[in-house]
Amino acid sequence: MTSSNYLRLSPKNRTFTGFSQAWLGSDHLLIVNSSRLVERYQRFAFADIQAIVVAEGGRRAIWQAAVASVCFAFSMWVQFTFGKRFFAAIALAALLLAILDIARGPRCRCILQTAVSGERLYPISRMRTARSFLAIITPAIETVQGSVPVEDFAAQAAMTPQIALAESTAQPPAIERPLGYTPEILFGLLMLDSVLVFAALRSTFTVAFGLLPTMYFAEFLIGILALVQSRTRSATSAAVLIAAFLCIIIDPFALSGVAAWPGVVAVFQQPSPDAAAWNNQITASSTTVFLAVGWRAAMAITGLAVCHFERTAKGE
Amino acid sequence: MTLQGILCSACLRPLPAELWSGLEGQRCPDCSAPVLVKVFPAFAQSKIGSLPQPLAADLEASCFYHAQNRASTPCDECGRFLCSLCTLEIAGRTLCPICFEANLRGRKIQDLESSRTMHDSIALALAIFPAFLIWPILVTAPLTLFWIFRHWNSPRSILPRTRVRFYFAGLIALSEIGFIVVVIAAIFLVRR
Fold it and tell me: What is the pLDDT of residues A272-305, one digit of tens each?
């Protein structure tokens, strides 16, 4: 084992890409941000720490319960067996996450303040963790800095005119991140896919079997990426993106997928599927084809227009 | 005085001094979030570095980097005289800027390191993930073994961490090589 003088202060706060964790050093607090393959370290000397502020908030359980309810509703509504199971599984996962979230206690935001910075401590994400963290780190800091009654700080603060940090400190100009092109790529893909879906649902099983899964996968992947990057986007763009993503999820289980699936099942149910079976025409109704093509085209046009107007408004 | 105010971590607005007691059950007056505030003496102390002293007489020792400043301490590494402007106190040692940079580049002082590569995790990932596609193990299994030997003694995390990932990666890579050998042998036997 590596010789280490560090004492663990918090559990790992895991994300999709890694984790962060707080450790207690001999004269500093160490925050480790790991991307699994590389660890990055931030050190805060005990002598420099001015204050630690913990604020309770951010309840995700409500959202998870809402997602679970929507998915349960979909699993009831969808007629297709695979779709029912798919939505039921997502709903169950969301419900379990909500229960787990409640069991872990209230969330919090913890900020460590120094003379020159206010650093968010991501590993301290629960009130329970924050209390144990403060219980350990406070004596360690007071050993270095000494202990002064809070009334003394209050008296000093009363004597000094209190000004918000934002007003007292000259702030650097805000850096505006350029808008990415992921939503445009998604809406462009939807436009292309509207043609491909039409081709797939008006041709043989071979074509549909080759086209549809690839399309669903690409739409889902780029949709997720666009949603993740939608923070910098306007509310209208975000709303169109969310609507598009919902349609992307529903389509395979309610429209194009349902139209193609019975034929694919029929091919595989044959004892020895021959070439003729694969060349059977897909029997999708005109309404299904119209809806599957129509929502893609409509969403693509709307999305591209919204993105265009957003860029024009921002002067890009 | 560096008194600027303590900010609420939820709304980033200043918290009034009455809330600095560190007691539970208090709420931010702006966002109403329950807050827990702990203030330390550094908040009320100004930390202004000492100014370098100018040379009073020609016979006084001057700073190596600033000939007009009086030397106050030597560098622990190279012995050059330094004024208070050039003195860097790192991990209980006094260093000049050049030695500081050399230590930073050479990763000689652990307290200066801002990142480390986890070679054991890389080896494990190299052993596991390509196995899902089977054929890449022809390349990645030997590569994993090379990575393990190459980085066995490379600096690991500064936190407590064993070599168990290296052992697992090695075992998996050896199993993959064994699998490749068996498959090749089987192909030869079938052809005969």
Answer: 656 666 677 777 788 888 888 888 999 999 999 9
Do residues A40 and A71 share a domain?
no
Label residue A310 exposed, middle or buried (CB < 10 Å: 0-12, 13-18, 19+): middle
Residue (of A186, A205, A201) closest to A299 by Cα position: A186
Q: Which domain holds residue A29?
A: 7-55+108-147
Q: What is the CA radius of gyration of chain A?
A: 27
Question: Residues of A numbered 116-145 whose beta carbons fall under 8 angstroms of chain B's beta carbons: which are they?
Answer: 118, 120, 130-131, 134, 138, 141-142, 145
A197 class by beta-carbon count within 10 Å (0-12 exposed, 13-18 middle, 19+ buried): buried
Q: Write b or e for each residue in B9-48: b if 16 or more Cβ atoms lie within 10 A of its Cβ, otherwise e.
A: bbbbebbebebbbeeeebebeeeebbbbbbbbbbbbbeee
A97 and A227 belong to one structural domain: no
Q: Which CATH number fits the domain that encloses residue A113? A: 2.30.29
This prediction's pTM: 0.63
| Residue A213 shares a structural domain with residue A242 | yes
Are B160 and A1 an interchain contact pair (Cβ–Cβ within 8 Å)? yes
How big is the A-B interface in CB pairs under 8 Å?
Answer: 167
* Nearest CA-CA partner of A127 in B23, B34, B100: B34
A164/B9 Cβ within 8 A = no
Q: From the CA of B138, how many Å to the nearest CA of chain A? A: 23
DSSP string, A100-118: HHHHT--BEEEEEE-SS-E
ipTM comes to: 0.79
Which residues constitute the domain of residue B18?
6-44
- Token pair 């008194």 is found at B3
Are B115 and A40 a contacting pair, CB within 8 Å?
Answer: yes
Q: Cα–Cα distance between A152 and A160 in angstroms, integer?
A: 12
Sign of the C-alpha dihedral computed for residues A286, A287, A289 and A293 taken in this order:
positive
Distance CA A242, CA B4 (A): 42
**A72 and A192 belong to one structural domain:** no
Residue A115 touches partner B, C-beta closer than 8 Å = yes
pLDDT in tens, chain B (192 residues): 344 578 888 888 888 887 777 777 788 888 888 888 888 888 877 655 677 788 877 778 888 888 888 888 899 889 999 988 888 888 778 888 888 888 877 777 777 788 899 999 999 999 999 998 888 899 999 999 999 999 999 888 888 888 999 999 999 999 999 999 999 999 989 887
Q: Which amino acid is at A286?
A: S
